[in-house]
């Protein structure tokens, strides 16, 4: 497991190494003799257009030099604002900076001659997730506070559990049919209000009080943290469910979505 800090889980089958993935020579050295290079790395959210190309190029170069199979963790931004259910062969039509960045990374890898696949996840939820739900809903619901979210409260939306994402990456890496194309992580589709309500029930918290964040609210948040300025690009079209089709992942890779309540039970509930 390569990270800049050298951190990660303590496990007898995991060797932790401190390295910067943009150091192509060092990354090549660490990749040499391995079977597969799996990347879940990304620069800070607000620096994607500036920093992602160098990271992607380094990873792809290491894969070329060593001949390993290459598995990329992606998301849904490259599709742009489309209506679902979205399948992995949907055209990549994003025009925003983050969507174009993701699109470029995949298209360059796919055209490189490397044995490559991309696993695309929806918004993360569950233990360890960092997403709109985890940052703006999860703790507020558990603590009984007002929830403000920059999305429509009752429109269906697809969510990917962290564990299902990891299982899909591993399954794709081990299946020859996976390479040369993209796959969707299995998801659960429900509104953010429904998801918050389930979390509240499991945490024995009050019924969630929820309001949709206004453009003004979101603009004010941009003065506190650059992350929030990036949200405007990735918000779904008003009134449009954002739903993905993962049937091929289930059929060919053998990975299904973990039941919602099982995922939410993994979340820590402070008392």
From TrEMBL:
InterPro entries: NAD(P)-bd_dom_sf
Protein name: NAD-dependent epimerase
């Amino acid at each position: 497991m390569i990270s800049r800090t050298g951190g990660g889980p303590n496990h007898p089958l995991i060797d932790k190494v401190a390295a910067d993935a943009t150091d192509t020579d060092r990354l090549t050295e660490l990749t040499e003799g391995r079977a597969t290079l799996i990347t879940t790395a990304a620069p800070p959210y607000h620096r994607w257009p500036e920093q992602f190309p160098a990271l992607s190029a380094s990873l792809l170069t290491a894969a070329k030099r060593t001949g390993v199979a290459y598995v990329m963790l992606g998301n849904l931004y490259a599709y742009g604002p489309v209506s679902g259910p979205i399948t992995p062969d949907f055209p990549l039509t994003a025009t925003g900076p983050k969507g174009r960045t993701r699109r470029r990374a995949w298209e360059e890898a796919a055209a490189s001659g490397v044995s490559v696949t991309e696993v695309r996840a929806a918004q993360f939820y569950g233990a360890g997730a960092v997403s709109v739900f985890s940052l703006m809903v999860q703790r507020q619901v558990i603590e009984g506070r007002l929830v403000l979210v920059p999305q429509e409260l009752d429109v269906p939306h697809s969510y990917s559990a962290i564990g299902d994402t990891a299982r899909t990456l591993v399954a794709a890496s081990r299946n020859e049919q996976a390479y040369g194309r993209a796959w969707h992580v299995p998801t659960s589709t429900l509104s953010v209000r429904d998801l918050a309500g389930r979390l509240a029930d499991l945490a024995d918290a009050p019924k969630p009080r929820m309001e949709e964040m206004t453009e003004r609210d979101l603009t004010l948040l941009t003065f506190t943290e650059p992350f929030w300025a990036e949200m405007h690009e990735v918000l779904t079209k008003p009134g449009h469910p954002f739903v993905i089709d993962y049937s091929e992942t289930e059929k060919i890779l053998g990975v299904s979505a973990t039941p919602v309540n099982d995922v939410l039970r993994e979340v820590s509930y402070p008392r």
